[in-house]
Design goal:
This protein has about 450 residues and is an alpha/beta fold. About 45% of the residues lie in helices and about 15% in strands. It contains 21 helices and 13 strands.
Length: about 450
């Protein structure tokens, strides 16, 4: 393993002095201490003033590291900004390559011998399919993840006992986005149970509200359908227990089991209800980001989506993220918890990204390590619209009130499950589950036919 230049401390000098005393007496001790001090001065001189925090990543000047990812503008701009000081101090150039066709193109690039240095995988299941091509994480990255993340997060980046990919960003998906002003103007109360949510939806649909009760969009290029799978996953945690969710994820309970059929029927009560949604088939051709824009302009009352939607609605649709008490802000958006069957049942669904390496270069390892540090995670969060499961992340650096709540959920969750489609084998989680849920919406494909088709694609063990 290559080693990075590390800052030395007076503890190192003292240790050398004690060793010298034992070997050659006081005179030799003085000579050794002088020599160590000179060496320490030389090492410290390699770190430019103001760059001391980056000493662990030095020694790779002039190198470039490509990061291949699904994350594009406007979110990518803040990622690139978060690297500026690191690049200046280390001399490493980070080439950010955002591609919405990542899930399709990463396989093409690996097979063609043009794999990126680092790839940000949005699904652990997809990550696992590349275990034979990835480089195991360095000891330094592994130790950093042990210190800065809970064990579950490290497990998601581990395949067959080998740790490959460190956590990056995270999201909490169990949110309903709404406008506090719209709710206040119409006298609507926040529901605390699934039954209350359906009752509220009926009330809105029957009222003189100019928009729909709900809006949605599941179009996302080659990843079309993932937003519909999130509904299934959130409701699976609500209508079934955690053990059943886990059995569904690993297919020890078949995808077409009656318990799953119960869940897709519940999802259909909202997603396939024209009284709530208007033109249901149009959901399949509406982008997932545009699908939530109705809560900003007042064309719909509610939209179920993950915590990351706030940054998109602010950047692309002129929204302002507010607290639920801010009921006089035009274009103000906030969230309430996607309710469970009972008010005291509050499971949380979430997701995240994982950074895996296809290169074993020292520069690649340095960037991968830096992304696990509390320093980078706090700097990135402070830029806005993002958070992570890093235990060193201070919620004071998360200005967005929705994201701050999400961080608290991640750091204190008692029942938390990762996005199921992200954990399933790639041909299912990023394949048939997406396409069949799209057919369920676009073609009104029957519930059981959808579940049977997905089960038929599950790889043989």
């Amino acid at each position: 393993m290559r080693h990075f230049v590390r800052r030395r401390t007076m503890l190192g000098v003292a240790t050398l002095s004690v060793a010298a005393l034992a070997l050659a007496g006081c005179a030799a001790e003085e000579e050794a201490a002088d020599t160590a001090a000179d060496s320490d001065s030389d090492a410290t001189s390699e770190v430019a003033a103001g760059c001391e925090a980056y000493a662990d990543y030095l020694g790779n000047e002039g190198e470039s590291v490509e990061i291949y990812t699904t994350i594009i503008e406007p979110e990518s701009t803040l990622f690139q900004e978060s690297f500026l000081e690191f690049e200046e101090c280390t001399g490493i150039t980070i080439e950010w390559n955002g591609d919405q066709a990542f899930e399709e193109q990463i396989a093409v690039r690996v097979a063609g011998g043009t794999a990126p240095d680092l790839a940000i995988f949005p699904q652990p299941g997809l990550l696992a399919s590349f275990a034979g091509d990835l480089v195991p994480a360095s000891d330094a990255v592994s130790a950093s993840v042990d210190s800065n993340y809970t064990a579950d997060w490290k497990n998601y980046g581990t395949v067959d006992g080998n740790f490959y990919a460190a956590p990056l960003g995270a999201n909490v998906k169990s949110f309903v986005w709404y406008s506090p002003k719209t709710f206040a103007d119409n006298g609507w109360d926040i529901p605390t149970t699934w039954a209350e949510l359906l009752t509220l939806s009926d009330e809105i649909a029957a009222s003189d509200f100019a928009g729909n009760a709900w809006c949605a969009g599941i179009e996302s290029g080659v990843a079309t359908g993932w937003a519909a799978t999130d509904w299934m996953e959130d409701l699976m945690l609500r209508f079934q227990d955690a053990a059943t969710y886990d059995a569904w994820v690993d297919n020890s309970m078949p995808f077409n089991d009656p318990k799953v059929a119960e869940v897709i029927a519940e999802a259909g009560k909202i997603l396939k209800n024209e009284d709530y949604m208007g033109n249901v088939s149009a959901i399949a051709t509406t982008s997932f980001s545009e699908g939530g824009s109705g809560v900003v302009d007042g064309s719909c009352a509610m939209h179920r989506q993950a915590s990351f939607l706030g940054g998109i609605l602010v950047g692309d649709y002129g929204a302002t993220v507010v607290s639920p008490e801010d009921t006089d802000v035009e274009g103000g958006i906030s969230t309430f918890y996607f309710p469970g069957v009972s008010a005291d049942s509050t499971p949380a669904l979430g997701g995240g990204e994982f950074v895996g390496a296809f290169s074993d270069s020292a520069a690649t390892q340095a960037v991968q390590l830096y992304l696990t540090s509390p320093e980078w995670n706090n700097d990135k969060a402070a830029l806005g619209g993002w958070f992570s499961p890093n235990l060193g992340l201070d919620t004071a650096n998360v200005a967005d009130p929705v994201n701050a709540v999400a961080v608290e959920i991640l750091q204190n969750a008692t029942t938390f499950r990762f996005d199921a489609s992200d954990l399933m084998p790639g041909e299912v989680g990023a394949g048939s589950f997406w396409t069949e849920m799209t057919a369920w919406i676009a073609e009104d494909k029957a519930d059981q036919a959808v579940l049977d088709a997905i089960q038929a694609t599950w790889p043989a063990s």
